[in-house]
Amino acid sequence: MFRVNNKPVIDKGIISFSHNRYESRSLADKFALEKARREIAQKKKGVSHLILRAEDDAIDRLKFLFPVHGIPIMCYALGNLLMSSLKEIVVVGSTEVKIILEHFLNVVDTRGKKVMFVHEDPDNLMLINTLILGRNQLSLAANELVLFQPGDLPFMYDMEGVLRDKDLKNHNLILWLNSRQAMFPHFKENPASEFVGRNYHYRVIAEKAKQLHDVKEPNVYPINLSAIEDDIIELLHQTRKDGKILNAGLSKALRSPGRMLMLLPVLAKHFRKFDSDLKQFRLDDDFKFGAHLKNFNQGTSILLDTPFIAKFNDDPAFVSDVDALEDWEDFESLVHYAEERHGRDGLAAIHPFGKELLRFKEQAMPKLQKLIPMYADFKGYLNQLYRSMEMQYVPFDESGRYDTPNLHTPQIETAYRWYADKTQHFAQRIA
Fold first, then answer.
1. Is position 133 within any domain?
2. If pLDDT is split at 50, 70 and 90, which confidence band does 303 have?
3. Is residue 424 part of a domain?
4. Whose CA is closest to 15, among 140, 101, 144?
5. What is the pLDDT of residues 170-225, one digit of tens each?
6. What range defines the domain where residue 110 resides?
7. Are the beta carbons of 52 and 204 closer than 8 angstroms?
8. Distance CA 172, CA 301 (A)
9. Is 251 part of a structural domain of the chain?
10. Mean pLDDT value of segment 337-363
11. DSSP E strands: which ranges in 94-246?
12. 290 domain residue, yes or no
């Protein structure tokens, strides 16, 4: 149906350290607390006290600025990209992001890459505008995909499978779905092996492999920006978490009668077969949206009017973003655990850019404590944030020592062993 011949690799990337803001701190806290209370009442596996920005904050509560082991999350994400085969990287963010970026590159260098910064637009923080801001800094060919990703994935350092994916040549958008079964194949018999706790709201049946996957929305987007309509990008982004993607797609298709006509057989198969096929795997299931993988790929390609494919990601680092206080704790505990075993260089044992990150911490963070308000007293700032979010504890005691219930869970030991092994193999591969 579609024929494209794209470049076989991605060498340009846009990383977003920008995020939407609520009109007031009270509205942001209301949303975060209601969500957390609801998840607690429903006994959800992944309770999240979200880290949200607000327009009236004296200190910008931008999650990418939060330090893990005294190093901003954004620096981990930047280090991941500097280790990749990307040649050009556009960073979108605030003035504080720019300050940290400059200090970071002064310490670790660009590794021969072209790194550009563009200010976010505080009056238009929609995803599509962030993408456009990044795209305008790049010279992209019509047959070239770019990598877009948010900057809250501190340990997603193994990028080459995405940048050199064999499907890049023949598809203009690839969704790397985070599959629970692919990332944590033994979670049923060994719950501690699932060291990233998330709620998986989507179901995908891979008919060829006869497998059911519980999935979450992706965090990396290989995309041909010249081939995907702007309204579709924003539509997919807005509905990615609430399960209304089918309704959004139908709304778009109804405005394009030709596409709607082509979609009818796909929709007919979905409504005729999915629920009954799902019962072959589970008699009772609670989910927001589900589909057969082949049918989903076909329907989305029609909707986008361009070749599309969804794939299952098996690397837990791709789902382990930092949206909430619980996520921040996962990484703070992980590095703390590694340091207990390896001393001051513990981070280097679990992250291949660890030595450079520690050097940045030593050389630049004392200066940044005077330039970035959040860092003047981050431990006190975070303790107060925990109290305002009705957490039952604070992460730092009066002496500034980190200790939370999270630190003493078997999942942290599992995460440490997984990342230590991954880092060792990664270092051998790129040596």
1. yes
2. confident
3. no
4. 101
5. 999 999 999 999 999 999 999 989 999 998 989 999 998 999 999 998 999 999 99
6. 12-227+306-318
7. no
8. 9
9. no
10. 97
11. 114-119, 146-150, 173-179, 202-206, 211-216, 221-223
12. no
